[in-house]
Amino acid sequence: MASATLPIERVQKLFVQKLQERYSLNLLGLKKAFSNFDLNKDGLLDVPEIQKCVTQFLAGISEDSIASLVKLYDTNGDG
């Protein structure tokens, strides 16, 4: 399957929709989702963890689209 490069707004919308299908988007649901995605349990989501999470919900998404999503939310620029 070819990877899809989508506009960041579309990636964001699709990802939130998929999260809502699986988790309640309240504090408890978000904590549960974060805990499931934080594979090394260090309290942070690093790029590989985010990549795994996003591809789990958006199969076939391109690495460029994931990198754009990370960049959008990485406000301090530390990856």
Give your account of this protein's structure:
With 79 residues, the chain is mainly α. Helix content is 61%, strand content 0%. It has helices spanning 8-22, 27-37, 47-57, 63-73. Helix 3 packs across helix 4. The longest helix is centred in the N-terminal third of the chain and has 15 residues, at 8-22. The model has no long low-confidence stretch (mean pLDDT 85).
User: In sequence order, what are the helices and strands, one letter per element?
Assistant: HHHH
Which bin fits the share of residues in helices? 55-70%
Number of strand segments = 0
Outline the biggest β-sheet: none
For the CA atoms, what is the radius of gyration?
12 Å
Label the structural class: mainly alpha
Q: Spans with pLDDT under 50 lasting ≥5 residues?
A: none
Range of strand content: under 5%
Outline type: globular
Specify the number of helices. Answer: 4
Query: In angstroms, what separates the terminal alpha carbons?
Result: 27 Å
Return the average pLDDT rounded to an integer. Answer: 85
List keywords for this structure.
single chain; 4 helices; mainly alpha; 79 residues; globular
Explain briefly what this protein structure is.
With 79 residues, the chain is an all-alpha fold. The chain has helices spanning 8-22, 27-37, 47-57, 63-73.
Layout of strands and helices, then pairs:
Blueprint: H1 8-22, H2 27-37, H3 47-57, H4 63-73
